[in-house]
Amino acid sequence: MKMRVLGAFAIVATLVSTAAAHHSGAGFNSDKVMELTGTIKEFQFTNPHTWIQLIVEDEKGAKVEWSLEWGAPNQLGRQGIRPSTFPPGAKVTMRLRPMLNGAPAGAFVGAKFPDGKTVGRWE
Amino acid sequence: MRSARRTIAFVLAFGVWLTPSPAFAQNTPPALRAYDTLPDWSGAWAMVGGTVFDRATQTGEGGAVTQGVRSHPPYNAEWEAIYKSHLDRRDKNLFPDTISNCGVPAGFPRHFNLPDPYEFVVRPEQVWVLTENGPNVLRIYTDGRKHLADQWETYTGDSVGHWEGDTLVFTTVALKGHRDKDVILDRTGLVLSDKSRATTRIRKTDANTIEVQMTIEDPKALTKPWVVTKQFRKLPADTRLYDYGCAENNRNPADIETGKTLVLGPDGKPLNK
Predict the structure, then answer these.
(1) What is the domain extent for residue A57?
(2) pLDDT 10s digits, A61-118
């Protein structure tokens, strides 16, 4: 599993404001960002928040399903994001703020596809 | 022929029944303001700033991270202690946002403290403030009616008002506040009591700004009126609003036993129980 902690990271204002609408965002580590490379299983373009399901291989080769929470579909839709933005089966590298307890989930920060196309915050 | 007579008799009787009594006729509401003289608040709008009233309370695991208006209600000692207890639980991620479990309105005044677009629909007899988030509807009657003397308390209460030039002025009463523990003003646990009421002034300060100033009174919780001003900026003309189906895929419910906000995995089981 390709996993790298990037350290302290500026909060993505739009991401947080959408998450803030519904719940506290508690449980995610706001002080670090990690990187995962895997295959998209599903992009749940649903209320109140969208979720990206990503299949990642761990060190032993086992497939682990990660859940990445993103903003409200309405807000993202107005910014040009669509259900097709993350097509099932696509390879992608994602940055997220992981859960504090190590569970395979986190808050989505950004994504980069093999062709260089990025989504969200990727600098 | 007999059938025709019966029909005529029925029509006459029904007509008499429908005719307003003199007493009813005397209660005719005052003339409504003509539609084309009302201010233009059309379009989609978004609240400026974050959804936390007091930024100084942004601490702990469950702390807010968005910018907000620093405004702390002038609580009396009893309600300051209540708020403090909410902040303590929030810092431990044990104070869930009441709307996280879906199905309850944001209530007043949180109605003017939400993310996502707003619409201000101005009609002669009513003004509707619609929020995509929720969704929520605030109806403000401007047809001359008064608050009911025996109005029961609800999340959003009862609002009646009038126009002062192009400023809408209205009072909101019959709010249940924190009585049933299912209304908060923001997710830090800011609350008001079931004795709260408000006088609100809404006006357009320039082509792209609507200002909402609420003067909130609460003899049970506050030592003096609390004045809160929120601004809303106009969104691009082609902005669309959509469904907000909170229950569609809510993976952040509150744990019933502890109040902890959960994160559900793809199998529906909590990842942070």
Answers:
(1) 3-120
(2) 999 999 999 999 999 999 999 999 999 999 999 999 999 999 999 999 999 999 999 9
Tell me, yes or no, whether B19 lies in a domain.
no
Q: Which residues of A touch B248 (CB under 8 A)?
A: 46-48
Total domain count, chain B: 1
Contact B249, B125 (CB under 8 A): no
Q: How far is A72 from chain B (nearest CA, A)?
A: 9
B204 inside domain: yes
Q: Say how many CB pairs under 8 Å bridge A and B.
A: 120
Tell me if B28 is assigned to some domain: no
Q: ipTM for the complex?
A: 0.77
Please identify which residue in the block is written with the tokens 């669309």: B240
Partners of B44 on chain A (C-beta within 8 Å) are none
* Residues of chain A found within 8 Å of residue B90, distances taken between Cβ atoms: 24
Distances (CA, A) of B22 to B19, B26, B28: 9, 6, 11
Domain containing residue A97: CATH number: 2.40.50.140
B263/A11 touch (CB, cutoff 8 Å), yes or no: no
Asked whether the beta carbons of residue A48 and residue B61 sit closer than 8 angstroms, the reply is no
**Domain-embedded: residue B160:** yes
Residues 251-270 of B with CB under 8 A from A: 251-252, 260-261, 263, 265-266
- B109: containing domain: 38-234
Q: How far apart are the first and last CA of chain A?
A: 22
Question: What is chain A's length?
Answer: 123
User: Alpha-carbon distance A99 to B34, whole Å?
Assistant: 56
CATH number at residue B157: 2.40.128.20
Task: Give B51-87 pLDDT, tens digit per residue.
Answer: 877 655 655 544 444 433 446 889 999 999 999 999 8
For residue A97, what are the contacts with CB-CB under 8 A and spacing of at least 6? Answer: A9, A28, A29, A30, A32, A33, A34, A106, A107, A109
